[in-house]
Amino acid sequence: MSDSGDTTAQQRVLPVPAMGLVVLVGVSGSGKSTFAARHFLPTQVVSSDAYRGVVSDDENDQSATGDAFDLVHRIVGKRLRRGLLTVVDATNVQREDRGQLVRLAKEHDVPASAIVLDASDGLVRERTRLRTDRDIEPDALARQQHDLSRGRAQLDKEGFRRVHVLDADEAGTAVVELEPSPHDRRELSGPFDIIGDVHGCRAELEDLLTDLGYRIERDDAGEPTGARHPDGRTALFVGDVVDRGPDSPGAARLVMNMVDSGDAMCVLGNHEHKLLRALNGRNVRLQRGVEQTLQQLESRTAEFRERLREFCDGLVDHYVLDGGDLVVAHAGLKEAYHGRSSGRVRSFALFGDTTGETDEQGLPVRLPWAREYQGKAMVVYGHVPTPRPEWVNNTICLDTGCVFGGELTALRYPERELRRVPAHRTWYEPTRPLHEESTGT
Ligand code: GDP
Ligand code: MG
């Protein structure tokens, strides 16, 4: 764009999720269709006016509104199921209308953003007067303006990830910036060494990395500060690096340094999730290993604790890798959730497919999603310790209970080769034997 200097200065940049729903909001004549045509592909824009025309031969026929929105919602649903960016061009001045669209986005586990075109009433009236394609009653326009102003203040509490409000000048110059999903790392093809739940077993992690061919760097005290594979392989941690074991800070330091130097990636585990809450000063139950970590952290600096807090805060709940052929999530992930972002996707990735109920020992009841898995991607995860990793429909759990005296396991990808090292000892007594599914918490 060849904007003059002062235009550039006020040019708004609007981040919009590349996989998500964009809800345009504005009265007739506020410039929604113009904005949509300028920033999005025609196939990405679903317009209520266009479907009013499709079902009635007249885009102005208000009696066709119900049928038109049936189609709008169906098409939006079909596109979101396919993970396609979709823009709804309709006034959306009523809270209930926006609510239906937010629910559609949630149903498909994608974020929704709102872009409010907030042209002044005078400008809208003037444009409406000049328009030849629409016949808008002044009363109808006033009603829309009233509806919109009523909901404006609460718009950011309706479930949108972001709400952008643009005045007429900003609407003319703004640029839309598509934000790739943080889960989408399809461009990375490894090779990876995917490593199961470490749980503070720093020494066993060093053993495993060494066995895999990584060269470990150390500080003067001998503590590992980094590890690099001579062939450029990437270590990929399934989460639960911390808690329960003898040296969670040391294990976390090694993993954080490896991530910083590009030698590793790591997804969020439920233990990092809980530790983050504790480090944020939230009230967490001091059980299941977080109490050890917090105690071990007392001998570390405040800077280290803050770095660990930021690290946990920045972890993504799953990655889609290698052109979509590999998915890594702490507790696994069913195919419909691959690459998606929502509360229930996060909860599945962290805790597995739980029913929300607990058994007689207070442990979560799990559903066997892997046994029904038919997806194309290999899904690699941890979370529930088992004595031996086992392939179930192109999925594999790498948690072999190192902290409970089992082994620490890695899967080489794409080779599909398993490597494991034994625990130096039992660091934490399991609540039940490892072969009984559902010890993982
Ligand atoms: P919608 O009803 O919200 O979809 O509004 P439209 O995009 O159809 O715009 C309504 C009228 O305003 C049309 O005649 C557009 O040409 C005009 N319009 C929209 N945006 C702008 C703008 O940024 N500048 C000017 N000058 N006219 C605009
Ligand atoms: Mg329009």
Automatic annotation (TrEMBL):
Coiled coil: none annotated. The keyword Transferase applies. GO terms for molecular function: kinase activity; phosphatase activity. GO terms for cellular component: cytoplasm. InterPro entries: Ap4A_hydrolase, Calcineurin-like_PHP, Metallo-depent_PP-like, MPP_PrpE-like, P-loop_NTPase. Gene3D superfamilies: 3.60.21.10, P-loop containing nucleotide triphosphate hydrolases. Keywords: Kinase, Transferase. SUPFAM superfamilies: Metallo-dependent phosphatases, P-loop containing nucleoside triphosphate hydrolases. Residues 191-387 form the Calcineurin-like phosphoesterase domain. This is Polynucleotide kinase-phosphatase.
